[in-house]
Amino acid sequence: MVTQFHRPTDWAIDATRRVLTVTWDDGAVSEYAWEPLRRACPCAYCSGEGSFAGNVSDATVFTERQATLDRVYPVGRYGITPAWADGHDTGIYTFKMLRTAAGLD
Ligand SMILES: [Zn+2]
User: What is the CATH number of the domain that holds 34?
Assistant: First the structure.
């Protein structure tokens, strides 16, 4: 099985619709609504690590700021880190995660 590794060529924060739009190198465009994106934060604080369950679950209610996307930083050649309006910016979302979440791979 051949797995092709795709990277974004561009991304944009749409504050009106509260979505992150990612354009991929194969031409696909995917959108991620801010709140589900925040909920999916893979960092140890949010999603847990080992026996620690994490602070975010399906039942977590986010404040406006927690679910407001401020900026997006590239992380190496494999992912991005969203910086949320409440200052949270420790989650690394790999391109693979984002492609899978969008149903692309
Ligand atoms: Zn997090």
Answer: 3.30.2020.30
